[in-house]
Amino acid sequence: MPTGVALRDVREQLFDAAERILLRDGPSALTSRAVTMEAGCAKGVLHRHFDDFDAFLAEFVFDRIHRMDAHAAALRDLAGTGTVADNLTDALTALFGSVAVAIVPLLTFRDEVRARLRRAWPAGVPVLTEACTMIASYLAAERDLGRIAAEADIETLAPTLIGAGHLLFADRKGAPPEAGAVRKMVSTVLAGVVVQEPLF
């Protein structure tokens, strides 16, 4: 695209390009040139909208974190429907099938991006801590409905599910785990806290 041609939603176009590169080629392939080429725009466009490439990447991570809000709300809305294990299996599969897993090595790979995020996010890996909050909110809703035991330690269960889920999905180049494997992990973590629903 020639320089000077107005781009509609240029930030989102650049973020989408970065996501495609990250998922396809990994964090080492993310450069300002690669992002602008993927987005189909002139090289200078990115630097007209962001102070530098690390600022762009930090904003990209925050943008993807904020997108998780809709997923969190949808998961909370499932409380009381289906089974707890199935709801969490689907939620974890969607979470780790997204860019969330790919952002973790990006933060490991880019010290300056991690430092910038740390100023606004003082603890934990942003995507994973937000995912823990999402899972904890759902588990709390199920506990309120009596489908999770009142004494369940949600603050421990949520990060355990995220950590175990991350290990299942972490091999970016390999095939994703089958739903049965994810469900087995969820059921194992929640063993003893899911209240048996009556059979009619």
UniProtKB/TrEMBL annotation:
UniProt keyword terms in alphabetical order:
DNA-binding, Transcription, Transcription regulation
Q: In which residue ranges does the UniProt entry place its DNA-binding region annotation?
A: 31-50
Q: Name one GO molecular function term.
A: transcription cis-regulatory region binding
Which SUPFAM superfamilies would you find in this protein's record? Homeodomain-like
Domain (HTH tetR-type): give its ranges: 8-68
Per the record, the coiled-coil ranges are none
> What InterPro entries has UniProt attached to this entry?
Homeodomain-like_sf, HTH-type_TetR-like_transc_reg, HTH_TetR
Q: Does the keyword Transcription apply?
A: yes
| Name of the protein | TetR family transcriptional regulator
